[in-house]
Amino acid sequence: MKAALVALLSCFAVAPLHAQELVAGLGYASFNNNAADDGGVVELEYHFAPRWQLGGGDVYLAVAAMADDSGDYFLGAGLGAEFPLGGAGWFLQGSVL
Fold first, then answer.
1. Which of 71, 80, 82, 88 is deepest in the core (most CB within 10 A)?
2. Model confidence over 53-74: pLDDT tens digits?
């Protein structure tokens, strides 16, 4: 599992990135169910340049890859959106992948 994550992250470290936005995330999932596996999570998202406007926000295409300590993987593609919240640089961002 760890070797696969290192290999995945190494691919992104050595290749030039021409993304509008690249998001990397690390986290930990803790479930209340004793039968569920708690563990670490690593995620990479690629947000393309905004293509549409909707309600004052930008809508764009996005892809994501996620892996966790229990050996589960997720690859997805879909739409994302970002809406500004005031003038201080804050924003609301969401996606459906």
1. 80
2. 998 899 999 999 999 888 889 9
Distance, in Å, from the CA atom of 77 to the CA atom of 41, rounded to the nearest integer, reads: 18
CA 61 to chain centroid, in Å, comes to: 12
SS (H, E, C) the chain: CHHHHHHHHHHHHHCCCCCCEEEEEEEEECCCCCCCCCEEEEEEEEECCCCEEECCEEEEEEEEEEEECCCCEEEEEEEEEEEECCCCCCEEEEEEC
Residue 94, pLDDT > 80, answer yes
